[in-house]
């Protein structure tokens, strides 16, 4: 679905990210929607070659018709700040094409 973004922050459990986001007014979810009731790596994530460790880091952001550009920017800034705070100010971007 083009309105759902799946992400993971290396070294930070998705459950913790979700709780911090929710506590700060951002409603996000963890895991795959089709396997949310199970405490295991979702079949959808396995099909994408996501490891069990990466599966624990996974969270998803769903965008709706009322989501604004400002909402997305605010969440982005929050995720960056939260990650820096968690990792002691060190944050680097990594994509699936990176060899790092």
Automatic annotation (TrEMBL):
GO molecular function, one term: transaminase activity
UniProt keyword annotation of Cytoplasm present: no
Record keywords: Aminotransferase, Transferase
Pfam annotation, one family: Aminotran_5
Keyword Calcium: no
Domain Aminotransferase class V: 2-72
Entries under InterPro entries matching the protein: Aminotrans_V_dom, PyrdxlP-dep_Trfase, PyrdxlP-dep_Trfase_small
Domain of life: Bacteria
Name of the protein this chain belongs to: Aminotransferase class V-fold PLP-dependent enzyme
Organism whose genome encodes this protein: Piscibacillus salipiscarius
